[in-house]
Amino acid sequence: MLQVQCQQAICRLLSRHSAAAMPKAVDLTERRDARTAKTKKLKSYGPPSAVKLQVLGTGAEGAPRSLYVFTTSASYLFNCGEGTQRLSHERKTRLARLENVFITTNAWRNVGGVLGALLTLNDIGVPALTLHGPPGLNALYRDTRNFIQLRGMNVSHRSETHADFVDVGLTVRAVPLWGAAASREPPAVAAGPPPVDYFAFERTGGAGGPPLPERAVSYAYVCSVPDRAGRLLLDKCVSLGVQPGPLLGQLKSGRDVVLEDGRVVRSEDVTSPDEVGAQFLVLELPSPDFLPSLSDLNSSLDASRLAAVVHFSPAAVMDSPEYRAWREGLPATVRHVALNETCRGHGSEAVHRLQHQLHTIDPQLFPLLAGDDPTTDQPTDGAPCKRVRLSSEDDPTAEQDQDQEQEQEQEQESSLIHPPSGWGLSLRPPAEPDTEGVTPVTPDVYRAELAADEAFSARLAEYRQASAALPPAAAAGVYPQTVLLGTGSSIPNKKRNTSGILVNLSEEHSVLLDCGEGTHGQLVRLLGQQQAAAVLRRLGAVYISHLHADHHIGLISILEARRRALGAEHRPCLLLAPGPIAGYLTMYHNKMAPLLDTFSLVANARLQLSSSVVYSGDTRPCPELVALGQNCDLLIHEATHEDELQEEAELRAHSTTSEAIGVGRDMAARHVLLTHFSQRYSNLPLLPEPAPENVGVAYDNMVVDYRHLPRLPLLYPCLRQAFAESYDQCVERTAKRRDRKQKLADQLANDGLV
Fold first, then answer.
1. End-to-end distance of the chain based on CA atoms, in angstroms?
2. CA dist 141 to 118, 146, 588, Å?
3. Which of 227, 474, 635, 707 is the most exposed place for a label (fewest CB within 10 A)?
């Protein structure tokens, strides 16, 4: 009996020790049940008392394009470009209440953020999500199950247009608009059989789902806010002698009542008028081929209720005479909101704050963001943007005609809003547009915060003195130059995007190592549109280390942007990636938009850029990598977890900081740059004390020339002071975790179980 009790005690203690050491198990079923119950309760209150449109992604080059609709009963999303979930995190948008996403066209600019959002929604316990949009959209989640694992979340697709979608917060009518004939055939195969035909099965486009239309289609969404019954006016009820009780409920529900003295009290006499719901339209005409179908919208629009039109159409289409004439035919009270390439700004204040702080420490390693300049003339209140056209240098008559045309255009432009991210428009109650969600970028404030810290100023002086004392590196130069575009793991947060590293080998050649969601946006934000396009033109290869979503979801946008940048000189990019990626890319080509002409796939086992740079991808310490990278100049190694989370690192096949440093030591790497940090270390990871002399910490938008490598280890003391509060919180959490482990170990020892 005693032996059994001892065994049971040992099992209980070991179980507790295991629970403390391993990551917490998350009961998604319990989360989903709770969210389902909360949603049901909210919808039971009837039509929403508040409805507001909020811009998440502006559609600017490199920025997502997405419109969030908040109601007190439910939330809705229209288009979900790459980076939408990152912006929603910064804006504190309630994605947990999201049940329906509406897609206008099956193009990556509209769907690039869906896969990442699905993973996030699954982890927070959203029970179900419906994707509304053209046929073929269901392939986005059905054919990506090899790297998108949804544990019990129900994802469905609704492409029907014969019946309205009716929800308590919104009624949505999908109106199909038709363009030219769709072409999805793969490009011709070069002469001679390929070594391996990765597209053998996928050329058919897969199986299942509704048949794809023969013509290109875009869904316009006519959205109507439900009417809301008027409020019961209690003062009038009292004046007419209505007693508290069930009679008030009958009057509120619209029924007349008879009082004890025989008088009839009519509901309309004691209630305010019913509130008629507004209407708004979400519209995208991807090309001029769709212009003739604009008239198909007329029968679905109610001019007396139409409050806003959100235009995802490109500027070239919106500038056409047909589109302008259609806009002129709408009531003058309608607000027109453009979310396309004419907008500016990526919408993240947190990124600017961090970059200005780091720039204060070292302007060369941390340049300011050239492609997201907050000092541009973009109106922060969403006011109309006027275009400036150069005057004609020909005869005065042509100049006069042009002036008249420009006046007409500016008259139309005066009603066209190019809003920043966070701009909002309340439809219930109706109100003027607001910028409550727009966070201003204030560089002077960021710099002043650091300057006020005397300890930081001291560490900064020490860093600059130590940097100046460094001897010139042998054969110092710019290349290879390493540009960190994403240094976080799993999901993006405000300060760290998912994996992406640009390596410029020379002025003519570049290669991209991994390509998490939003990599193209990071490139544009850092360099600006023109320089980003120049990088894409010289991009010769993209290396995908493995098929975790956070390492390759940004690939399609990079390939499409590279094709645009090269124009008539377009040529395929070498894609070094695991072979199964072919099915995913071919699915997109067959079901959504042409893509197979943008890359030439080589199934990778390993990539060695040169004798100078070694990249680990996600891995446990690996002897093969050590052998491959002997005596390299720079090892870029993942360091997802701190040392106290050794068990979690082993469970998830990642490395701790000390393990990554140990790989560099065994490799005899001259310099080690740690990256792929868990998002719990968005400001600063914990390094072992004392920090090794050849190890640096990577940040997004960090540019490391070859000659700057010796500076990297000198940064950490200065960074630790700049982010002292965040660092102290990490140290405190680590100490608590260590204390819990020690208490368990002491208890086991006291009980004689170890």
1. 21
2. 9, 10, 11
3. 474
Q: Collapsing DSSP states into helix, strand and coil, what is residue 328?
A: helix
The answer to whether 280 touches 425, Cβ cutoff 8 Å, is no
State pLDDT tens for residues 397-430.
Answer: 444 445 544 544 554 455 799 999 999 999 999 9
Residue 662: burial class (beta carbons within 10 Å; 0-12, 13-18, 19+) = middle
Residue 230 CB neighbours (<10 A): 16
| Phi and psi angles of residue 174, each rounded to the nearest 5 degrees, phi first | -90, 120
Q: Which two tokens stand for residue 329?
A: 């035919």
> What is the rounded distance in angstroms from the CA atom of residue 623 to the CA atom of residue 209?
46
Query: φ and ψ at 215, to 5 degrees?
Result: -115, 150
Q: What is the pLDDT of residue 41?
A: 79
Pairing of strands 416-417, 335-338: parallel
pTM of the model: 0.85
The C-alpha torsion from 453 through 458 and 459 to 463, rounded to 10°, is: 130
Residue in the block written with tokens 């368990």? 744
By three-state DSSP, how is residue 288 classified? helix
Q: Are 53 and 65 in contact (CB under 8 A)?
A: no
Give whichever of 83-97, 679-693, 694-708 has the largest mean pLDDT: 694-708
Which residue's entry shows tokens 């390094």?
Answer: 687
> How does residue 508 score in pLDDT terms, banded at 50, 70 and 90?
very high
The rounded distance, in Å, linking the Cα atoms of 59 and 592 is 19
Cα distance between residue 134 and residue 182, in whole Å: 13
Q: Going by C-beta distance under 8 Å and a sequence separation of 6 or more, which residues neighbour residue 413?
A: 384, 385, 386, 387
DSSP-based three-state secondary structure for 609:
coil
Token digits of residue 744 = 């368990």
The CB density around residue 686, as the number of other CB atoms within 10 Å, is 21
3-state secondary structure 413-425: HCCEECCCCCCEE
**Secondary structure class of 557 (helix, strand, coil):** helix
Residue range 527-538, pLDDT digits in tens: 999 999 999 999
Q: Are 122 and 98 in contact (CB under 8 A)?
A: no
Amino acid 519 reads T
Instruction: Supply the pLDDT for residue 182.
Output: 63
Sign of CA dihedral 208, 211, 215, 221: negative
Mean pLDDT of 301-322: 96
Q: Between the CA of residue 25 and those of 28, 30, 424, what are the distances in Å?
A: 9, 12, 38
Token look-up 């969030």 returns 68
Using an 8 Å Cβ cutoff, are 391 and 374 in contact?
Answer: no
Residue 43 has pLDDT above 80, yes or no: no
Helix (H, G, I), strand (E, B) or coil at 314: coil
Residue 38 — pLDDT band, cuts 50, 70, 90? Answer: confident
User: Using an 8 Å Cβ cutoff, are 689 and 720 in contact?
Assistant: no
Outline where 553-692 has alpha helix (H): 555-566, 581-591, 623-628, 646-651, 657-667
**pLDDT band, residue 190 (cuts 50/70/90):** very low
Residue 516 zone, left/alpha/beta (φ > 0; ψ -120 to 50; rest): beta
Q: Sorting pLDDT into bands at 50, 70 and 90, what band is 741?
A: confident
Task: Answer whether 138's CB lies under 8 Å from 106's CB.
Answer: no
